[in-house]
Structures are given as C-alpha cells and as structure tokens.
Amino acid sequence: MAGINMILFSIYETAKIVSLLGRLVQTPELYMLSRSLIEKIINYSLCILSEEYAEAMLSYSNQKGYRVLNRQHSAGGFTINQSFFRPEDEFLSEKLKKDLAKFTGPKGREVTKWTKLSTYERIDKILELWPSFNALKYLTLLVATYENSSESLHGTLYGTSFYFGAFHPNATSNFEEMINIKEEHCLTSMAYSVIAISEMIRLISIKIQIPDILKNSDNEEQKVLKNLRTYSESLKSRRTGTTKYTTNIIST
Fold this sequence. Notes:
Number of domains: 1
Helix content: 55-70%
Number of strands: 2
Largest sheet: 2 strands, antiparallel
C-alpha cells in the first residue's frame, strides 16, 4: 500500500491549491482542480478498501510508465515519434510484461483506464465495501464540478464563461451580480471539497484506528462550512437584481 499512498500525498497538494484558488476567486481553475481532487479521493478510498483495486492501480501505473515513452502523434503535417523501448526488449521485467499484457486489449490496443468502473460506479463500490460511507459527500463534489471542469479544460466558450452565469436561461447583465455568481461558484466548490476530504479522513481514521483524526476533522469541517455559509449569505444580501442562479446546497 506504500505506493498507493502517493495518491494521498497528491490529495494534500491539490487541496492546498484548491484553497489558494478559492481565495483568489479563480473559478474555472478551481473547478478543474476540484474535479481532480474528488477523483483522487474516490480512487484512494477504493484502493485502501480493496487490495484488488490497489493492485490494479499499481499494475496500471507500472505499465503506463512504459507506454508514455512509446507514442506517435501527427498534426499539421508533422509527426512526433517517441520510441524508447520495445516490448521485446530483454531487460523489461517479468512484472512489467505481465502488467502490459493485463492492460492490452484483444486487438492489441492499450486499455486506457485502470478500472472498468466509471467514477460514479466507484462510489457505489466504496459504499459496498464500507457500509457506513456517506456517498453524498463524494457525489456532490463530483456532480458539481465534473461537466463544467471538462468544458473549462477543453477551452470552450461555455467553459470560459459559465461561472459568470453566461448562457444560463436566467443570465444577468448586471456586472455586480455576475461577480457574485462567480464567487458563489467558488464557495460551492470549496465547500464540497471540504466535505469530501472530511469523509475521506473518516475512512482513514477507521482503517488505521486513530479516532482523534476523525474528531478534529469533523470540527474543522463545521468551522469551514460555517464561514462559507456566512460569506454566501453576505453575497446574497448584496444582490441587486432578481436573477436566481445557484442552489445553496452549502446550507444542508
């Protein structure tokens, strides 16, 4: 499980940047990293609950390190060819050869996902393995960020403007309201991130039996959410129009 814990370290690093982006109100970047955060949390939770999935993650990562060194891409009349090793090279370890075979399809194509489960199905699997799991705490962050983060990442017009309420059926042209909407998007994403991290910490505390971690995590979650609620209410009181854009799930 030592290798799997690199995901936990990455969760810590991503959470720090999510916090920073939230304070800077960099909404599209916050959405992209919040999605990355929840996917890491889901994957890590599944791996520490199941040796089978932990092994699949390790095998996938092992063969991926080889495959990324052997790629060919063409565009605009140019071709970039990366070819550092070949599958028949004798120095490749037996473990690597087995992992390559495991993630190679019947027609010789690369299997590009570490598990056949979708992200939503992974949440179902976590609940199956951990009956006391509060799946809503993962699901809310995933639903809130998944589609919008993809649009932002791919640079579409929607993805570069949704956080102002653009293209919403009740879109406003009032600049102050647009800024408020942007800030509310940040608040929502940050709140869901805190909730998801808290639930992951609850899982870790149960697995390694350190109750103080759980107690401190619950306390911090409530403090952060209280502050976010207060700020959210202040934004609503500053509204100058009648546009209703976001749903305040933070208050649940």
